[in-house]
Amino acid sequence: MGKDFVVEYDPNIPPSEYMKLGGFAYRERELKDGDLIIRVNEYTTLTNEGKKLWRMPPRFPSI
Description:
single chain, mainly beta, 10% helix
């Protein structure tokens, strides 16, 4: 099984091959990320609605 990643926003992240303008990066998921698809840090404000919107969708069994 592949690794899980989250997207992190930090205006100090330089441009890269994957993010031409910088500011965003894929990061390996850590326990502190829970089931969010974004990383919460000092540049992220997460409202209660945001906590619902930015969650990993449930995994469906293979058909």
